Amino acid sequence: MVASPVNKLLVGTAIALLILPAAAWGDGFQLTMELERGVPARASLEALRTRDRARHRRILQATAPSSAGVVDFPVEGSADPFTVGLYFTRVKLGNPAKEFYVQIDTGSDILWVTCNPCNGCPSNSGLNIKLESFEPEQSTTSSTIPCSDQRCVTAIQSGEATCSSSDSSSSPCSYAFQYGDGSGTSGYYVSDTLYFDTVIANEQTSNSSATITFGCSNSQSGDLTKSDRAVDGIFGFGQHGLSVISQLSSAGVAPKVFSHCLKGSDNGGGILVLGEIVEPDIVYTPLVQSQPHYNLNLESISVDQQQLSIDSSVFATSNTQGTIVDSGTTLAYLAEQAYDTFVNAIITSASSTQVKSFVAKGNQCFISASSVDDVFPLVSLKFTGGAVMTLKPEDYLIQQGSVDNAIIWCIGWQKNDGQGITILGDLILKDKIVVYDLANQRIGWKSYNCSQSVNVSTTSGKNEYVNSNQLDTSASSKYSKLRLFSTEGFILLVYILAAAALL
């Protein structure tokens, strides 16, 4: 989802996450966190669309002007492309350290966890996890951020914090995030220690830590009060100065870049890293400046190499329109003025005796006994700077069933009714390396088999070979191989594993 912290539903899988330091921090030392994915029941295309649209109401509100071994994690059950879940990780906070399950959200900025007492906060979770609450007074290293603190002043300027004129300089720096669907959370900021499990050479483990600022939630409302997919908080991966990625980068602990590669096949999988994938042929386009989300300038759409007759102004960025990259949106959404032109072009290109076209519950669908790659066209999205994203039929079609020996496919791109926002969700982002280079304000991508290894930059002067079971090192190259991401600071590595149906 591309908004402030709130429940996010994803097509995805369980994840394991590692942070590793580069040579400046010593050889063979890795910092690890563990991510998991809760998977509820199978969802229909209509259910996916309904959940996505709930998130998109928050998008519109947020865009309105306002101011050396590898841990191998177990795989339970299976995942498929129709499953809707959420990504979450375990983080340890405070002294003594306490573990919390927090949802990973690339569309928000702040890490916050439930505190005690809390009004409206769930006491149990349908994800089969034990919910916890953070108690600042029980941590010997915790301190409340006052209104006079520069971190609070900066957060107030960006709308991430509030301090009223009646508050004294020592009053807690507060926040209140409200969403268009009625959900919300409020609390105050604290500073405390974030602990990581570390893996060093020969599969030995140790601990490391960093002091960060995060939110202490004492009130939740709307969907955040529901227990079916409740977690202890939200881990925002946005660009704000108080996001964990920004804090670690400013401290010289981590680079200001993260990447993911989500496997699109039935068993899921993939990787997410705090670091830069350096595979050849990654193309980049600039991020639109001064936007709260990951906005790109989409210039045109082509179907079967024919550019569609869509005015480029339809995709121009403003407070009410533009193109957003959001790994928290399951499907993909086209601005209303572009949608019908796109669908008609697909229908025209796929017209043959091998394909039967029909409409089901407002969705354009097809029945075909042939491979979709043989009868459906390629789609190209052209962005500023000449960067082109080429999409296969599986990037805009969703398999919805079968009849006799034929497969039923429906267009997974949805019309953003009454809205000018185009959202590139998981349906498009899967089976691609996607790099969020925040330091250089750009996003890059390339089509990729996300079950294979990837190259990443490192300053250690040696190769690192990583898979889900092991890590080997050998001298010579300045690149790492197989799901390893290195920079001058720490490296964050996430393994995405297939998850079980927990509901």
UniProtKB/TrEMBL annotation:
This is Aspartic proteinase-like protein 2. Residues 87-446 form the Peptidase A1 domain. Residues 1-26 form the signal peptide. Keywords: Aspartyl protease, Glycoprotein, Hydrolase, Protease, Signal. Belongs to the peptidase A1 family. It comes from the Eukaryota. It holds the Pfam family TAXi_N. The active site is at D105, D326. GO terms for molecular function: aspartic-type endopeptidase activity. One of its GO terms (biological process) is proteolysis.
